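Schema walk-through. Below, the input block comes first and the output block second. Nothing else is stored per chain. Lengths vary across the set, and this one has 201 residues.
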Amino acid sequence: MHRPTKEQIRALPLFTGISLDNVVVVQDIETAQQAIAELKQSTCLGFDTESKPCFTKGEVNTGPHLVQLSNQSTAFLFPTRFLSIMASLDQILRDPKIKKVGFGLAGDKKILKNKFGINLVNTQDLSVKVKKYSGEKQRIGIRAAVAMLLKQRLSKSAQQSNWSAFPLQEHQLKYAANDAYAALCIELEMNKKKCGITAPC
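--- output ---
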């Protein structure tokens, strides 16, 4: 298995992922409690964060502005502007029984700890796992991993958009949800090939 070129990725069918009907934006305590109750039913979740990009020299990164968690059916988006929901989110992020899978998690761990005092535990950085799985010499990003393992093209068109805005636009919701959902799909696909099952090995 080899890392595809940009041209090869562009030729692949688009990763459709989670529909907007299955994306939940968590804005209040009641919705947060419902989300946490559902997420606790899983032993493995797709995870990601989004931060408003910095374009000016010396500009301070104030992220993360969004935390995403996804099971196999629903993606939950937690805007960090709602501080009341962060304590609920912490229940999942620090739960050692629930594995969180994503790409480039070192940065996520640092900013969550620094800004909210949240310790992200039981994680799997898929950029490293896919690298070992594929035999590549360098870490693999999520777009390349989706192409390699799912034979689809993950859109990154909203990556540089304003994640501190609220409410987010539909294309941002779709992008954010699919970053977490795609990570989970990749984890499950590798486990299926390795172990013959669709659950974390």
